[in-house]
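Q: Convert this sequence to structure tokens.
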Amino acid sequence: CTGPNSFTLVTNDFDLAMTNLGAKKRILFKQGDEFLSDSITYIASGGPGIIGAYGNPLEQKPIIKKTSRTTAFDIRSPNWTIMDLKLIGFDDIGDAWAIGNTNTAQKGWLLYRLDISNFSAGITNVGWPIPVVHDHLFVVECNITDIGYGVGRTNNVYMGGSRLAVLGNSIQGVVGGGE
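A:
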């Protein structure tokens, strides 16, 4: 990154990197590396912003591995892209979603080429406030597997709202719920 407001933070601590979220920021993780996380990443500042990967696209996606039963991304602000990451939950017991929110109307998500596994739920946006609905949410080319074995009930993708697109995804391996 170059420019007057850019900086480079070198760390293998995913949670530390996420403290730098903000509008017009890109937080990129190196292809082939693994990063640990034990807390929920609240995306509470408005975008546009990108959380994704850099490096050799032939290498494995960066792995974000949860070390506790917590949701990976709780998106509460509009215009965010999360892409080219592998999200692995701590286990699939408890109430830990890969990506979701139950408290606010969500707008302007793009979830692109994510690999998600081992959470109690995949991608959700339940509990929207009426009459406000979620808007402009896109889940594209994601692989969502092995969700909900520990809880025995769940969904891999559970979304509602206006202008939604769920395109070209591989969704399989859910127990006691819907795909």
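The chain has a mean pLDDT of 82.
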